[in-house]
Specification:
CATH topology: Rossmann fold
Order of helices and strands: EHEEHEHEHEHHEHH
Radius of gyration: 18 Å
Strand content: 5-15%
Distance between the termini: 47 Å
Largest sheet: 7 strands, parallel
Number of domains: 1
CATH architecture: 3-Layer(aba) Sandwich
Amino acid sequence: MDLEGKTILVTGASRGLGRALVERLANEPVRVLCGVRDPASFAPIGGDARVVELDLGSRESIDAGLAALGDERPRIDVLVNNAGLFVGGLLENQPLDEIYAMVQVNVLGVMHLTHELLPDLQRRPEAKIVNQASIVSQLQFPAVSTYSATKAAIAAFSESLRRELDETNVSVLQLDTGGMDTEMLERADEQLRAHMDPDRWERQDAHSWADRIVKAIEDDDEVLHTGGGSRVVELLGQAPSKVLDAVAKRAFNR
């Protein structure tokens, strides 16, 4: 995909990988729509960018955000479903309200936004949907049961949708993201330290990953796999379950 002149909507643009991605896109000849829950707290990024209020926390807030897009909506060429929440720890200790909120943002919000924007994307000469999955979509490790389930849902959604949209003008890119040095990983560190050793995690640079995302969009890749040591971890998810059982037994402490 040639990005010149394209309009790209990125959800969860206020921090972490979303922030790194919109900053990277601001250097391209594109219009960037930065979807955030609180526009007043979003620092300018330069380039041709507009901040839009887009809260994936409920059906009503998503509809309100879509309505607020106004004339920008039919011009969107690339939808980046990046926004996400993390809840971890032993299942019985995870706050139920937080589990519901995570499923809403990580799964239902992605499906809702994609459902509503897909007819507009299909009217563009060329369009793309980019979905933020994770290496844990395949790596079912203890203490990340609910988060892993949301990312597995996005991986399945992306694969199915990619095949559904075959021979249309809309393509799908799935991001199998590893551990990024972001606030979300710090939250995971806090919630999981009692059960494993987060000091051994690889913490990749979000800006370097944003560079790779932009290149994957331009190259029309279907899946962008993580790199470094995280790629080894990702491949572990494809090994026989007994292998992962053995690794989990060594790394996880209930």
